[in-house]
Amino acid sequence: xxxxxxxxxxxxxxxxxxxxxxxxxxxxxxxxxxxxxxxxxxxxxxxxxxxxxxxxxxxxxxxx
Length: 64
Prior knowledge:
By secondary structure, the protein is mainly alpha-helical. Helices cover about 95% and strands about 0% of the residues.
């Protein structure tokens, strides 16, 4: 009777450990998604700034 109960307890503990790791992976994936969207926003802003700087530089060259 001991071994079947031990096997059930070990199985339950194994599932509990897997659940903890699954939650950790989920949280890290959400954090990574937020970082990716923030980076995309920053890149977009930098591209807009570069475009404006290019336009003003082109106007300055045309004025010469």
